[in-house]
Amino acid sequence: MIDGLVTRPANEAACDDLQVIFGTRGAAAYCQCQRYKLARGEAFARFPVEERTARLREQTHCSDAASATTSGLVAYLDGAPVGWCAVEPRPAYVGLVRVSRVPWDGRDEDRTDQSVWAVTCIFVRAGFRRRGIARALARTAVAHARERGAQALEAYPLLTRAGPGDEIQAGTIRMFAAAGMSEVLRPSKRRAVMRIDF
């Protein structure tokens, strides 16, 4: 474990802390972790960043520690918000269920199975990368899903290698393997499916 690193469910994090992690520029700031949350007929072009930010706050229940639900984890290093992991039941990612081929190609999976959880994003803010924070978030995601009754947890990492300073939002095979997950499929040249059954 990394000295000074604490990971919490996102509902126990301040909403402002989420925005510190996502920042004001780049893919994370633009997406606000909504890629797989958009419903049928919705597109990024129709939703300003403010709307995506509001949806993220609603989904995470940030600043509401009493909430029974949340959609992610937040990492703090020496009290500073530094990382994010989107993890919750797989059907909550309606875009993943509806249009993404990655989790489904070559497998007979029930897309509505609430007992299978998914990690769709792991992001560490600039200035804190390459310290093991993303790996720690992946390990915590496994424990988080297991503790909340998941029967399995999946992730869909990129196979391409990121360069220094690149934003890794899907994670890597090595990161999820270190968290106890195994590769079950390579549905495309760019993606793998990692999974752990509890």
Word description of this protein:
With 198 residues, this protein is an alpha+beta fold. The protein has helices spanning 15-22, 26-31, 49-60, 94-98, 133-147, 173-178, and strands at 5-9, 72-77, 80-89, 116-124, 152-155, 182-185, 193-197. It has a seven-stranded mixed sheet, sandwiched between helices. The mean pLDDT is 89.
Topology:
Elements: E1 5-9, H1 15-22, H2 26-31, H3 49-60, E2 72-77, E3 80-89, H4 94-98, E4 116-124, H5 133-147, E5 152-155, H6 173-178, E6 182-185, E7 193-197
Parallel strand pairs: 4-5
Antiparallel strand pairs: 1-2, 2-3, 3-4, 5-7, 6-7
The main β sheet shows up as:
7 strands, mixed
**Helical segment tally?**
6
Shape: globular
Helix content: 25-40%
| Overall SS class | alpha+beta
Q: What is the gyration radius calculated from CA atoms?
A: 16 Å
Task: Give the N-terminus to C-terminus distance in angstroms.
Answer: 22 Å
Overall pLDDT confidence: 89
Task: Kindly estimate the percentage of residues that lie in beta strands according to DSSP.
Answer: 15-25%
What strand order characterises the main sheet? Answer: 1-2-3-4-5-7-6
Topology as a string of helices (H) and strands (E): EHHHEEHEHEHEE
- Which spans have pLDDT < 50 for at least 5 consecutive residues? none
Q: How many strands?
A: 7
